[in-house]
Amino acid sequence: QSVLTQPPSASGTPGQRVTISCSGSSSNIGSNTVNWYQQVPGTAPKLLIYKNNQRPSGVPDRFSGSKSGTSASLAISGLHSEDEADYYCAVWVDSLNVGVFGGGTKLTVL
Amino acid sequence: EVQVVESGGGLVQPGGSLRLSCAASGFTFSVHGINWVRKAPGKGLEWISCSRGGSGTLHYADSVKGRFILSRDNAKSSLDLQMNSLRAEDTAVYYCARDINFLAFDVWGPGTMVTVSS
Fold first, then answer.
1. What does the radius of gyration of chain A's CA atoms come to, in whole angstroms?
2. How far is CA B114 from CA B34, B77, B89, B92, B105, in A?
3. Span B54-111, pLDDT tens digits
4. Neighbours of B45 (CB within 10 A)
5. Which of A16, A54, A84, B38 is packed most tightly, with the most Cβ within 10 A?
6. Does residue A36 contact residue A88 with C-beta atoms inside 8 Å?
7. B109: nearest CA in chain A?
8. Bridging pattern class, strands A63-68 and A71-76
9. Residue B104 is nearest to which of A35, A88, A102, comparing CB atoms?
10. Are strands B58-60 and B45-51 parallel, antiparallel or unpaired?
């Protein structure tokens, strides 16, 4: 069980906006930046958002990230069928010098 | 092309050892942190270790501390993961990844499968 809590599942229809939450504590999200990954089963993860709200080059602006206090969110607008994947938040924990991933959220596009 | 590629996975018995390698190309290896992340069947991603860019400082997850050892060779642009005292729960796809910030991995390898079973 991860110290970063994500809902196990989320869903939406094409064109809809969905958000995925990541809840932590003052020792992880509260004191460091949050990153988000997309993983299609059988493939390597892909970085979607880093430093809370920065998009790497090539990531569509449909994907956005935010952080407030000890929680963070990933929003996907204009949902596409190819967005169906697992999504993970990730944070470095300075006090322990370890990295942690959330448990993951399986997004289904109905 | 910027890339990292893992090798060395396979089938090993419980209690055995295996050495994974991560070969990098297309970027200045020494300045980047390089991490290992694994995904066990049916489970989520798990960060397991890193070698910081510059200093090369090593960090490990509690689940592997004392059993797994990193060794970095900047001249060869490679990072090896020596895995000892392997357990069934170490069965996973192991990924090598370059970081651009703490836990922000912008380049990933295709992964290598490690199966611990008798």
1. 13
2. 19, 22, 10, 6, 21
3. 888 999 999 999 999 999 999 999 999 999 999 999 999 999 999 999 999 999 999 9
4. 25
5. B38
6. yes
7. A44
8. antiparallel
9. A35
10. antiparallel
